[in-house]
User: Fold Transposase IS605 OrfB from Ktedonobacter racemifer DSM 44963.
Amino acid sequence: MAKATSTIRSALHYQPQHAEVFAANQALFNRVVAFYFECIQAHEGLLALTNKEALTALERLTHATEANPAPIMPLTDIALDIPAMFRRAPINAALGSARSFFSSLKKWRARKEKHELKKPRKGKKSKPFRERPPVPPRSWNKSVPFYASQWKERSDHCILLKVWTGTCWSWLKVGLLSRDLPEGFQMGSPSLVRRGKQWWLHTPIEKTFAAPTNVEQQITTNPQTRICAVDLNLDQHIAVCSVQTVEGTILATSFIGNGTEIAGFRKLLLGRIARNRSQTGILAENEQDNADLWRKIRHLDEHIAHLVSARIVQFAKEHQASILVFEHLGNLQPEKGKYSRRGNTKRAYWMKGRIFRYSKYKAWNASGIITSRVNPRNSSRHCHRCHAAVIRYKQGQPESGYTPGAALVVCPQCQMRGHADRNASLKIGQRLLERYGDPFKEKPHTAVRRAGRVSKETGVALSQDARRQKGPSISEARYGERNAHGTAQQGTLWMDERP
Ligand SMILES: [Zn+2]
Assistant:
């Protein structure tokens, strides 16, 4: 079985004085976590146990019962009358932190040992090991989870939480503003989270479903498998998606987002920041300048990435695609130009990465759509029908050469005409299919195949070229063709990914 998880973030409505109560509750929680962390440090052996066993052992160490009247490290030293669930939640939190701390300590010790065993080269002194050991957390600022019996009567718009007010335990009624629970999901224990001055309730949700088979199986065993390939751009259409079957039938294409408009707006904001900065002259250290403008830019990018990824997944779902395909992102090459221009390209590029990440988890949560990535090299330079090099041109201009970023393509071999980004997205889909054997396709044109000499080092050339933002020249581009047939390198270079 596979699992999909997500979080519902609900804004809370509460009386202003309750903010202090939440803070007091969190402070007590963190004191208890710190106490248990110390307990675990004093009894390191506990970490060899499972979480459940460790929890029992820690309770025996700290909690007095009839059978266990005198625990070694009583929790009552910290606070009297802590509810059982307000003990278990911190124990689990402390266990998590302790496991992570001790595992990094162990790795550090291993590195140190390895360093000390290394013999110095002849005539050289051995270098001392300078890396500092990890330190246990000095302050704790964990959000408080509410286990069952610490909360009750949850409805769409309110919930009762049991909190420590600073003097006693009491039930507080809090208003909720949140979205509905998506179909098939189940709620976990909510936590009270502080963001800025505002308190939120975060509820993890989870659903289980039958795990999909992997990409290779889907593609090689069922010719009706539909894949949705996505070409992400910095401007014009942010995402161009097309759905095709493994056999090569093209079913649908969708153009999503107006990248030019977003880039224009972002550039305007960046320009304002640059102007403000030039007028002020000096930037204060450790202080964010133009905070409002930066926040606007951040929110814009976040918002667009969510919108675009949601629409990609929606489109894939509508056409029953079971695999999403993206390109690997190349490295961003620094651009020349004004501050606003450089900053803009950088952010548009980051947004591509964000759209990929969001699409990946949204697709998985939607019903187990798997996301995969392929080599980005020359995906827009070849015809999706016959694999020949295409002519890319702007409308109203002569049909010759290759103009990067132009909207239209025509194939001199098979006369295929269409939108350049659509051609690229189809090509991206085909890359994935090519990885698993001959994809029921025509062979590339012989003239093109002859253009390149087949050699073994293509794997290296391939990964280096993939870093370029701008495509290589045509003569180099043709070398890309020989990777498609007879070499298995793509399967090993670009592995499938799953969340
Ligand atoms: Zn063609």
About this structure: The longest helix spans residues 84-117. The chain is about 40% helix and 20% strand. The chain has two domains: 10-113+129-174, 215-493.
